[in-house]
Design goal:
154 residues, mainly alpha, Hypothetical Protein Yqey, Chain: A, domain1, Arc Repressor Mutant, subunit A, 2 domains
Length: 154
């Protein structure tokens, strides 16, 4: 069996420290700190201090979203230095997420689900989304999925 995401993060941190890759080291430490905080929070509930792969992915997704917002603010402020930094950190964060589906793949899945639920009008977008989102969980951005479904139901 392959490495868990947490083990991969630990190995990448060691490698970044060995290679002197400051940016990767900072980003991986940021994720590891979030994971440790989640483990501390998990001690007080039924999980017994264990954080699942899905929870770690959710933490990484949250960091990606924050970095995307920072990137937008930096580009609006015409700060090329911050844009470069945020872009590099974003690339590192995204390397830990599962490969995302393309728009074409999302469209194909959406067409299948629309046929399954027999949706014909934009009013049925909620039904389609309810059936489609579990199939693309972690593999596609919710905004993209919603956009594709809306276009197909016009």
């Amino acid at each position: 069996m392959g490495l868990t995401l947490k083990q991969r993060l630990q190995n990448d941190l060691k490698e970044a420290m060995r290679d002197g890759d400051e940016r990767r080291k900072i980003v991986v430490r940021l994720i590891m700190a979030s994971v440790r905080n989640a483990e501390i929070d998990a001690r007080t509930d039924v999980r017994g201090g264990v954080v699942s792969e899905g929870e770690i992915l959710a933490l990484i997704r949250r960091e990606v979203k924050q970095h995307e917002e920072s990137l937008l603010e930096a580009s609006n402020a015409a700060r090329a230095d911050l844009v470069a930094q945020q872009t590099a950190e974003l690339d590192i964060l995204k390397s830990y997420l599962p490969k995302q589906l393309t728009r074409e793949q999302v469209t194909e899945l959406a067409k299948q689900v629309i046929a399954e639920v027999k949706a014909v009008s934009p009013r049925q977008q909620g039904e389609v989304m309810k059936a489609l989102l579990p199939k693309v969980k972690d593999l596609a951005d919710g905004k993209l999925v919603s956009e594709v479904v809306r276009e197909l139901l016009k």
